[in-house]
Amino acid sequence: MRMTVRDVARAAGVSRTTVSNVFSGRVKYSEETRAAVLAAAASLGYRPNLAARSLITHQTGLIGLVLPPDMSPNTLAHNPFYNIIMDSVYAVLRDEAYFDLLIYSTHYQQSQAQISDRIVARNVDGILAIGEFDREFLKDLEASAIPVVLIDNYAPETYPGFSCVNSDDEAGGFLATQHLIEQGYQKIAACVLDMTSPLMGRRVNGYRKAMAAAGLQPAVFFQAGAPFEVGIGFAHLLTSQHFDAAFCTEDMLAVGVLHRLLKDGVAVGQAFGLVGFDNIATGTQVNPELATIDQHIYEKGQTAARILLEVLKKTRSPGIKLTMPVELVVRETSHRKPPPNRKGREKA
What we know:
This protein is α/β, with parallel strands linked by helices and 348 residues long. It is built from 14 helices and twelve strands. It folds into three domains: 5-57, lambda repressor-like DNA-binding domains (434 Repressor (Amino-terminal Domain), Orthogonal Bundle); 62-168 and 297-326, 3-Layer(aba) Sandwich (Rossmann fold); 169-295, 3-Layer(aba) Sandwich (Rossmann fold). Mean pLDDT is 86; it is low at 339-348.
């Protein structure tokens, strides 16, 4: 026999309206009430009728997560950033006990227009889109009237209905470079994968401002490709041109630089300073540990997901523009140690 909302309400000791609202997420209840409803539903084997509910609520319960179009086939395997975003987004949706997550990515043979067609065809309730997209794709999303939250996007056009969550990327580039300068490094390069990216451009701008403030000459290396492998190549350029430090706009890029420098016998953290950007777990799994800029990736994904759900519930107006703060994380690759006999000489 198929269990109904009435059965769940009776078992949980609440009204049918409360059961419906807990599953739809339309109304916020205490954790005790919510837990009682979910436990009763689980014990009875109750599953909400999604088709019937969508006719009543005019919502499908589907959220689309659009990955950037420039991702290589192995990006998810080699760059934890997107996995962290997906994990944090799904954690928020799971807590609502209602929304499902659809992942959209552009295959190299597909256009972004095809993605927008699929989004509309699946009738998703809202969209989270990570990275930079073609103007036409964003215009298509705007025309669809689907609530959208952009993550790490600096679209030059204004989309009043889109919310946006970014990190303070320029401040991060400045903090990283300023720290290296304060540690006594003088010939500092910036290493970046994509100089056409507005986001990476902001990080490099922060680097340039810190260098200019210290009266130092900037030097920017850029090359497209997989971050780790490109970082290995950058390491040779850095040592051959006698740089004594580098700011890398991504942690995996910095890890590649570190890998090669250590193989070449460079004392990273002393003779050479290195700071990344992201604060992924890999930074603490290498030796020496990687100094970095923490952009709070997990919190960024959570924030974007919560904003989208609040817009859908009409508890927040669309169009919010949020810039999340970043912070410097000092670790071994940038924290110069004093020479072995320095303390003795000072005492003498």
